[in-house]
């Protein structure tokens, strides 16, 4: 069974491109427009193998989403990739325990590569 | 650029809380800034500068500790938008995300998510949760496209206004113009600002135009602006800015030296203080030299400024040195400043603001503008020149500046003397003409005072020389006629030939006086 990736991103164009690229790469993909929608997906299941989240989003942002996930047993260990327009140092000051980071704007191929390596490390660990 | 105080009479909106734009020049146009809790439409084609303008406003406020929310509906992606802003000096990455937050509302606008109602709900939630002082909504065209009817669009605008008022959040809605000036958002918002890029032959100039600001005055018409690494700088059109003088003017009662004693004699005591002096003559006649001598009378107590478009400061220093004037030393002592704006694609109003800023900064009392044609070449609408010059002259008079400006005659010699830049020289209180004249196979330099408004002067035409001690004005150029035509004739010969002509002997002899 192919790995399932949940993309949480308010910028539709980015979410759309990522969905296409990862689907082409053989992954199953679901998307959510903000952190709250992301939590709804997680609650409904199935639990994804990887979560890619934007940092700044309406309703519930990336840090809020990850905090909520850490409080739920079933979601706590899902590896997360954060993507943001702000430097990683600013992100690290607000979120702990993410598996990968990409600064926007990025090349889609870089994200596909990062997804593969994070999943490989996660399976290996 | 120093923000100039709006000078329209009175200030009856002083009680309304204003939000500064931090965009140089814009608050002058808005007569104090935006109204707090208002909704402003900023429109313009792609590349007009809407995002830069909005970003400059919000980042400047964020730097003061305020919070701002940037909401995109379609538009650029946030990462690329920030990458584009990075070279701008107002952009500060460390303000994101705590002071400046970017979110996309595209999916909330999706029909399945509620369309305009979904967008309104999202905006309401975000404003209440984050408490921003400023909000930018980028992409109104996408909202319009999603609106099912004009009524729905009208309701959205109403709800946005209600939210802005209730939360005291000033909102800027960015839009590409649809050409429909009567769109609901135009009539319902508190202000409409349009950014344009006007093309003039090979040149283009950015212009800002306020269509309306509810409950506030503003400077009407188009105002040029630039986008540089410093962000946007607007130059309120001089004629609009100084429609009303910043202080009452007074009639000239004092005389100041021209720097040339013998010329002061012709002027019967020097130049009237705080007036505009027009120095007209062909290239090389000695206009700049005379200007430098006028400037050499400057001191720390009576500072001088040369605002030039042609000769570089180094060349001016050399020219002054050849007359025994040490400009560099005067600059070091703070008596003189040389500013050079070589002819290029300048903005006419920018030149005026640079000039006025330099005058105000040092309290300049002696000013040489060398020459007026540098301003003319910056003017994209030549019909502005006389009005522009009139307003600039008036403001310089109010500031107590005695200004000597040079105007170049296109012809080195010739029977006709057409006042260059028709109308500009007429605005001057004093008009001095420099001419070359040929007589008996020799060139002479002549100087004559044409006009001293409300004052007496010696009207004789004088020869002058440029020596290593500067300009020396000689005795009246007597015994010749048609001097100003450039082709002088000895008076006795002209009289004899005239008599002959009367008798039909020699009809070819002409006798022309100055034209214009």
Question: Nutshell version of this structure?
Answer:
The complex is a heterodimer of chains A (125) and B (516). Chain A has 125 residues and is of the alpha/beta class.
Description:
The complex is a heterodimer of chains A (125) and B (516). Chain A has 125 residues and is an alpha/beta fold. Chain A has a single domain (4-108), classed as Response regulator (Rossmann fold, 3-Layer(aba) Sandwich). Chain A contains five helices and five strands; from the N terminus they run βαβαβαβαβα. Chain A has helices spanning 12-24, 35-44, 62-70, 88-92, 108-124; strands spanning 4-8, 28-32, 50-54, 80-84, 100-103. The longest helix of chain A has 17 residues, at 108-124. The two termini of chain A are 19 Å apart. The mean pLDDT of chain A is 94. The model of chain B is unreliable at 4-13 and 504-516 (pLDDT under 50). In chain B, α5 runs parallel beside α7. Chain B has 17 helices and 24 strands. Helix content of chain B is 31%, strand content 26%. In chain B, the strands form five sheets. Chain B has a nine-stranded mixed sheet with strand order 5-4-6-7-3-8-9-10-11, sandwiched between helices. In chain B, strands 16-15-17-18-14-19-20-21-22 form a nine-stranded mixed sheet, sandwiched between helices. With 516 residues, chain B is an alpha/beta fold. Chain B has three domains: 18-237, 3-Layer(aba) Sandwich (Rossmann fold); 255-477, 3-Layer(aba) Sandwich (Rossmann fold), CATH 3.40.50; 479-509, no CATH class. Chain A binds chain B through residues 10-14, 33-34, 55-59, 61, 85-87, 90, 103-106, and chain B through 71-72, 77-83, 93-94, 96-97, 101-108, 113, 122, 125-126.
């Amino acid at each position: 069974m192919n790995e399932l990736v949940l993309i949480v991103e308010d910028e539709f164009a980015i979410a759309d491109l990522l969905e296409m690229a990862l689907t082409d790469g053989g992954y199953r993909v679901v998307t959510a427009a903000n952190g709250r929608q992301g939590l709804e997906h997680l609650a409904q299941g199935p639990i994804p193998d990887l979560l890619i989240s934007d940092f700044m989003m309406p309703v519930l942002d990336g840090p809020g989403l990850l905090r909520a996930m850490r409080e739920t047993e079933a979601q706590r260990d899902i590896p997360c990739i954060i993507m943001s327009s702000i430097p990683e140092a600013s992100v690290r000051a607000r979120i702990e325990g993410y598996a990968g980071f990409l600064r926007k704007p990025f090349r889609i191929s870089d994200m596909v590569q990062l997804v593969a390596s994070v999943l490989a490390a996660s399976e290996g660990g | 650029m120093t923000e100039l105080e709006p000078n329209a009479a009175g200030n009856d909106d002083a009680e309304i809380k204003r939000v500064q734009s931090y965009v140089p020049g814009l608050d002058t146009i808005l007569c104090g800034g935006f109204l707090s809790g208002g909704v402003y439409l900023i429109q313009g084609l792609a590349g007009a500068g809407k995002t830069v303008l909005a970003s400059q406003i919000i980042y400047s406020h964020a730097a003061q500790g305020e919070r701002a929310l940037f909401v995109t509906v379609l538009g650029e992606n946030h990462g690329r938008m920030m990458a584009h802003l990075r070279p701008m000096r107002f952009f500060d990455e460390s303000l994101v995300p705590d002071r400046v937050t970017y979110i996309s509302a595209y999916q909330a606008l999706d029909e399945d998510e509620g369309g305009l109602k979904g967008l309104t709900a999202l905006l309401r939630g975000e404003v209440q949760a984050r408490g921003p002082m400023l909000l930018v909504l980028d992409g109104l065209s996408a909202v319009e496209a999603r609106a099912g009817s004009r009524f729905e669009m009208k309701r959205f605008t109403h709800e946005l206004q209600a939210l802005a008022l209730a939360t005291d959040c000033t909102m800027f809605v960015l839009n590409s113009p649809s050409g429909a000036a009567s769109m609901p958002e135009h009539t319902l918002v508190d202000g409409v600002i349009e950014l344009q890029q006007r093309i003039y032959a090979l040149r283009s100039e950015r212009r800002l135009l306020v269509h309306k600001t509810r409950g506030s005055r503003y400077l009407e018409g188009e105002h040029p602006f630039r986008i540089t690494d410093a962000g946007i700088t607007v130059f309120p059109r001089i004629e609009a800015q100084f429609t009303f003088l910043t202080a009452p003017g007074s009639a000239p009662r004092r005389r100041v030296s021209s720097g040339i004693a013998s010329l002061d004699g012709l002027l019967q005591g020097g130049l009237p203080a705080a007036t505009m002096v027009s120095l007209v003559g062909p290239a090389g006649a000695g206009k700049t030299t005379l200007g430098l001598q006028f400037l050499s009378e400057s001191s720390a107590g009576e500072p001088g400024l040369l605002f030039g478009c042609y000769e570089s400061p180094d060349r001016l220093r050399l020219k002054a040195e050849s007359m025994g004037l040490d400009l560099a030393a005067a600059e070091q002592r703070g008596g003189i400043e040389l500013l050079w704006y070589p002819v290029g694609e300048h903005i006419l109003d920018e030149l005026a603001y640079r000039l006025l800023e330099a005058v105000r900064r040092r309290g300049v009392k002696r000013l040489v503008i060398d020459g007026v044609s540098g301003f003319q070449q910056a003017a994209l609408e030549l019909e502005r020149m006389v009005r522009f010059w009139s307003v600039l002259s008036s403001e310089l008079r109010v500031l107590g500046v005695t200004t000597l400006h040079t105007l170049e005659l296109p012809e080195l010699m010739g029977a006709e003397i057409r006042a260059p830049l028709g109308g500009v020289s007429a605005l001057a209180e004093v008009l001095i003409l420099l001419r070359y004249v040929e007589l008996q196979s020799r060139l002479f330099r002549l100087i004559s005072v044409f006009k001293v408004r409300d004052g007496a002067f010696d009207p004789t035409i004088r020869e002058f020389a440029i020596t290593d001690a500067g300009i020396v004005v000689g005795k009246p150029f007597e015994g010749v006629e048609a001097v100003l035509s450039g082709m002088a004739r000895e008076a006795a010969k002209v009289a004899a030939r005239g008599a002959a002509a009367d008798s039909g002997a020699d009809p070819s002899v002409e006798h022309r006086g100055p034209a214009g």
